[in-house]
Amino acid sequence: MITTDAELNEILLNARVVASVGVSSNEDKPSFWIFNYLKTNGYQMIPVNPGAAEIQGERAYPDLSSIGNQIDVVQIFRRSEDVVPVVEESIRVGAKVVWMQVGIVNQAAADLAEAAGLKVVMDTCMRDTHRRLLGGLLSL
Can you tell me the distance from the alpha carbon of 112 to that of 42, in angstroms, rounded to the nearest whole number? Predict the structure, then answer.
């Protein structure tokens, strides 16, 4: 499990492509603003939401397997009990990091990801971490 600022910083500096599973097209949802912040701060953001064709000008995909290019970080906005299938798919597509947003805790999923060689961040906001460690371009 990734917990130190040095480890988090390394992920944020080296990641380029972030697949955001469960991101919403609803501007009232935190996932919308977190996605927007990361996109504005230089990450290639890929929305993964089977109910959307496009989110914030980016083509949305129904699942990770449909994306077809390298994914550095799989950012998860799903209920804790729904995380294991996302992690299993993250492993299949060769992602490097699974990042579970604030409030999302699933130790079985974390163990599964780590056993497959993925780094795991759990119950942590990627936007807030980026802001704190790298002083993001925008303070959305």
Answer: 29
| CA-closest candidate to residue 126, choices 28, 58, 36, 27 | 36
12: amino acid identity, one letter: L
What lies within 8 Å, CB to CB, of 66 at 6+ separation is none
How many separate helices (H) and strands (E) can be counted in the chain? 5, 7
d(CA 113, CA 106): 11
For domain 5-134, give the fold. Answer: Rossmann fold (3.40.50)
138 confidence band (pLDDT: 50, 70, 90): low
pLDDT of residue 135: 85
Q: Write down the domain spans for the chain.
A: 5-134
d(Cα 59, Cα 55) in Å, to the nearest integer? Answer: 7
